[in-house]
Amino acid sequence: MAKAYKVKYPVDAKGTSDSSRPFLFLIFLEVNSISKDRDIQVNHEIRAREVRLIGPDGKQLGIMSLKDALRHAQDAQLDLVRVASDAKPPVCKVMDFGKFKYEQSKREKEARKKQKVINIKEIRMNPTIDEHDFQVRLKNTLRFLKDGDKVKVSIRFRGRQMAHTKLGEQVLNKMAESIKEVGVVEKKPKMEGRNMIMVLSPKQTTTKE
Asked: Do 69 and 127 fall into the same domain?
């Protein structure tokens, strides 16, 4: 918010201004637009003949012209912010917009910190996988689930293996049984092209279908 001051000193008979003598002054408060957010209109960005005004203390001040609402904001050395565009007339509030944006940004940052990012890892196998390779993939799957990640387990069928999809389903069911202490089946085995897909989720965040 910018302030523009205009000071007028008394002028003597010779036309000389004397700043040491009593003087009159006028102070003009110019409320500049500081919003760069298209969804929020501030001060002279607001386009409305009249608005419903809320004071800085949350008190309803009623419906008035935009000019009068801006004057309220100027008198309080604050900003006029349009907070409800869909209302008729639109609702505006007198507030410190800079402080509002700072607190809003702070709240959004805190919310992002609380959000847990869940990644999807992928484990690939074939329908004739041997026990050693299966145990290696099982170990990785358990680690991913314990870290809070989902796991996409896929079986790739090649050539004539497409005639024996039951083998792949047995491998996936064996995996599901082996991880049941830390995970659950979010998506049951299902063919997608030449692949059979199963999705596992950490036990504490997902319920079984």
From this structure: no
